[in-house]
Amino acid sequence: MDKILTLLSNLVNGLQLGSVYAIIALGYTMVYGIAKMLNFAHGDIIMVGAYVVFLLFVGQGFNPLLALVISIAACTVMGILIEKIAYKPLRKAASPLAVLITAIGVSYFLQNSALLIFGSNSKTFSSIINLPSIKLAGGKITITAISLVTIITCIVIMIALTTFINKTKPGQAMLAVAEDKGAATLMGINVNKTISLTFAIGSGLAAVAGALYCSTYPILSPYTGAMPGIKAFVAAVFGGIGSIPGAFIGGLLLGIIEILAKYYISAQLSDAIVFGVLIVVLLVKPTGILGKKIQEKV
Amino acid sequence: MGVMLEVKDLKVNYGVINALKGISFKVNRGEIVSLIGANGAGKTTTLHTITGLLDAESGSVSYHYGKEGKEQQAELTKVSGDKIVRMGLAHVPEGRRVFAELTVLQNLKLGAYTRSDKAEVEKTLEEVYERFPRLKERRVQKAGTLSGGEQQMLAMGRALMSHPDMIVMDEPSMGLSPLYVKEVFDIIKSINEKGTTVLLVEQNAKMALSISNRAYVLETGSITLEGKGEDLLNNEKVQKAYLGG
Question: Structure pTM?
Fold first, then answer.
């Protein structure tokens, strides 16, 4: 019985971590789907978002929600600016590698800027959620408030994003741009604005992910975003890059696998296991779980 | 019967290649005008430059739009592609380029992207369904699952959804069975009869000329011949080069 309870509580932790991965992966996958690029600086936006919350909430005693809203706004603006300054001029570059390498450059730029501003010492983050935990099964399972909030936030974001894409004009424009920028232009869609919007949404979500991640793993340094960023990238590929439900499922699965591997196999090996699973999935299904087959009708 | 579209000395380069070496032609309101020519003559380049997918090196594309009494004029080489459809100029691109992952209905709705009056859009949708009953039958299907001919119907229906005054069509008969080819040309004619001006690019010169008021022959970036559709059909040079006779 205790073993089942432990498993349940591990699953909740896995879902929580997976929810953070999923929120980050949504940004990765949307930008890939619409701008056809891997934004390797996406993880570092998480770090920036977490620093903004840290400065306002921990440093200045702001209301945590207000701090989060400001952080979302800041990251949204930053995402749009990064796209305009660093990626847009390369959109017509002969090689897709140009923008990929630029993204890696932006990633280092953000990390080193944070290093200059905040120093290399890591800061101790405090949870933005200050509510009591829930105890189940006579106190044998404890679900922290941040777990619950993280999972619910992820589900709400997923539903909101799906509705936005399927039911609104800008959402449909995103799908059109994802498939064919030229044809989208002929429909009267402004491709540049649509790509900006995608970066804005992705970066805003990264800010949310940053606050939630650091509320659970409260150590904040300029490199904080790198690991969850790369894991979320794995989650996006795992679920099928370009697919929004894929990012959701990939993120949740990855979080669960990581936590279970940490608990039952080895804490040191958990990352290796996560990446091992990715390799196996890609060998069996190269397009990821929900990835589309690439087919063109001539 | 005023001039609707006037292209003057248009030059377009693809890197070092002069795709268009200074062409001039015009389309009058209410006409069907064809550009015929072989592969690589610059037909698609011409259309892409008109609707803003390509930038011109020099020359002008003057477009007259708006209702009678409120006519406006725009220099299309200076207008970004997404704004051109708002001026009532729609483009049915080569290779159809429907959004394969989206449903037929989503494709059609995207055609009306620039229009905000929902009731009017619904009305146009009904008209499009009436013209293309198969699109109505298949409205929930993904566009990628349609046959080539059906995709062409969808591409045309999608362009009609913007309620255009003028449509440019790029090789609408390409890769279609003879039955569909005839249907496509019948539809172009009927679209025109309802008041939409048509600029048509075709390799199927015979069909194109037979429905056109006027036509231009494009050869490696220059216009070499122009005339009435029927006159070009009977022109010896055209017959030799494009009509297999």
Answer: 0.92
